[in-house]
Amino acid sequence: MTSSTKNNTSKEKPNKEAVDTVAPNQKTDDISLDTASTEKSSGLLAGIIERATKSGLGRRKLNPSAVEADVAKNMEQVRDNPDQLRLAFLGGGSFGTAMANLAARNGCDTTLWVRNKRTVKSMAKSQMNKKYLSGYKLDESLKYSHDLASAVKDKDIIFLAVPSLAFRETLKSIAPFITGQSVVSLTKGMEKDTFALMSDIIKDELPEVNFGVMSGPNLAIEIMKNMPSATVIASHSEPLRHAVQAALHSAFFRVFASDDIRGVELGGALKNIYAIAMGMAAAYDVGENTKAMLLTRALAEMSRFGVEAGANPLTFLGLSGVGDLYATCSSELSRNYQIGNMLGRGMNIDAAVKKLGQTAEGVNTIQQVHEKASKDGIYMPITHALYAVIYEDKAALGVALHLMEAGFRSDVEFVMPHDYSNAALTAQMQAAASNPDDQEQDSDSKNNAENVTNTDDDSVENKDAKKSTAKNDSASKDKK
């Protein structure tokens, strides 16, 4: 691996063919995670494929891709040398615990850091996270610590799974102990009052560190139950992407790669907003049509916002976008869904958060995105509606009816870039955001927007009139 994701040196001699493909300044013990092998899969993954084939769960002939083969090779080396990858997971919530358990089960030297000393002792004694994953036994090789310095020193990768409110503080705390480790964010959210994503905070606090973000439809309990799941690791560093794949990829957990950090991270953060909306809708016992409409319009909002933030809109069609959106919006296990459901049943936000007893990132994200979208003139009607319900105490049903009466828009905006109805509504949004107290200018903006739409309507009418005239002329000629 590179210096930013270093491994313990191995006593075994490196493969000569692999050495020949390495750059002159690359260490020989870095080879396993820096080169993409095209050899046949072996070791753990091969065993999984063989068992799946025998049980009828897999195909008779499988041809893993180069990445799969590389992951298989790395997994085999990790299993043979448990100290090869040394990992620290910071945060003892449900997802951080599930990922740490997965890495330990894969043979990595894994330490789970939890702030509370008493909790650490309880977990070490019972091999269980009784607060967040009660009833699920953790791997015997998993280590626990409340000492932050010892947890992160000499590790290869540090995974942060703390709430967004504590993310910056945690990075500042580990900064003195960073000597080349890579950092991967497992946190889905935005920093309060700054609109900073976790990758932004990493670049602020640890500008020289090699980093990545991980996101996807990853409900912790389902992962602990070994239900087939998948996630996405996004990083500009290929060695880091491969290292994370090697550490976490297993028979029931697939790790895909991406280099669109912004898109993957925004997908994980924004979907929490719509999980609250879906939970609220479920409280009103809405039908499948309504759910489908909400889900697809949520995806449209996510991609629209993502493009403005510099993300690739196609990323939102992947696991970290529509995949995570679907899982979070359709599962009662989702904390944000539960918050929305309680709000839909008449509970206020403070009472709902208190009853949940865990962090629901969507509550903060709604406020952040509402303010950012209003300032930049990004059309986000569902987000604005949720903000009105949660922070302005508006009636949910009334807000929902107003949404249904909103102006016309195209279905997929990137397909119809010159849609005048979109332009009209966006103009209204931008005018309202830039001059909220200037009623006359707001009125002018609305009139201008209406004129754009009316002009479009007039052009359509003119075309229809021309077509009608042409038909009449043709009919007259036929008669003659």
TrEMBL record:
Q: Glycerol-3-phosphate dehydrogenase NAD-dependent N-terminal domain spans which residues?
A: 87-238
Q: What is this protein called?
A: Glycerol-3-phosphate dehydrogenase [NAD(P)+]
Under Enzyme Commission nomenclature, its number is 1.1.1.94
The record's family statement is: Belongs to the NAD-dependent glycerol-3-phosphate dehydrogenase family.
Which residues lie in Basic and acidic residues bias regions?
Answer: 9-19
- Reading the lineage from the top rank, the first entry is Bacteria
Annotated residues for binding of sn-glycerol 3-phosphate: K188, G216, K271, D324, S334, R335, N336
Tell me the route in metabolism or biology where this protein functions.
Membrane lipid metabolism; glycerophospholipid metabolism
Q: Using the UniProt annotation, give all residue ranges assigned to the region (Disordered).
A: 1-39, 430-480
- Key words of the record: Cytoplasm, Lipid biosynthesis, Lipid metabolism, NAD, NADP, Nucleotide-binding, Oxidoreductase, Phospholipid biosynthesis, Phospholipid metabolism
Kindly identify the residues recorded as the active site: K271 (proton acceptor)
HAMAP family assigned to the protein according to its UniProt record, in alphabetical order: NAD_Glyc3P_dehydrog (MF_00394)
- What taxonomic classification does the UniProt entry list for its organism? Bacteria, Pseudomonadati, Pseudomonadota, Gammaproteobacteria, Moraxellales
Write one Pfam family the protein is assigned to: NAD_Gly3P_dh_C
Q: Where does NADPH bind?
A: S94, F95, R115, Y132, K188, A220, R335, E361
Q: Where in the cell is it found?
A: Cytoplasm
Reaction catalysed?
sn-glycerol 3-phosphate + NADP(+) = dihydroxyacetone phosphate + NADPH + H(+); sn-glycerol 3-phosphate + NAD(+) = dihydroxyacetone phosphate + NADH + H(+)
